[in-house]
Amino acid sequence: MFYTRGAIEGGMLGEIENLQRRAVMVEIEEIIQSTPDYTDVREALRSLNFIPEQDDADVAIWVQPDLGIFVLLQMNLGGGYAGYRVAAYDGLEGREVRLPE
């Protein structure tokens, strides 16, 4: 369960949300780095309530809207990952990206 922004912005609730966001981002990075099989990564993302925005043979983009996190995976043709990025965003409309510190 994730605590998300409600009527109260900032303060303690904002700090909890940021901690949850960072924890999930670290968890996803660890999963990607330790799991060469995309099928397992896909299942892990689904279990954390990520939604696929694009899931092609060369690029996959997954979004966790409650925490404002996206995962971008660039795949190699022979399997594995050519690269990845796990980042936070400040809203889907503007696609503003705030990279993790």
Index terms:
101 residues; alpha+beta; 5-stranded antiparallel β-sheet; 5 strands; disordered C terminus
Structural summary, described in words:
There is one protein chain. With 101 residues, the protein is an alpha+beta fold. It has one domain (11-98). 34% of the residues lie in helices and 29% in strands. The chain has 2 helices and 5 strands, in the order H-H-E-E-E-E-E. It has a 5-stranded antiparallel beta sheet with strand order 1-2-3-4-5, covered by helices on one side. 15% of the residues are buried. Mean pLDDT is 80; it is low at 92-101. It comes from Methanoculleus submarinus. This is Halobacterial output domain-containing protein.
Tell me the layout of helices and strands:
Layout: H1 11-34, H2 38-47, E1 51-55, E2 59-64, E3 69-75, E4 81-89, E5 97-98
Antiparallel strand pairs: 1-2, 2-3, 3-4, 4-5
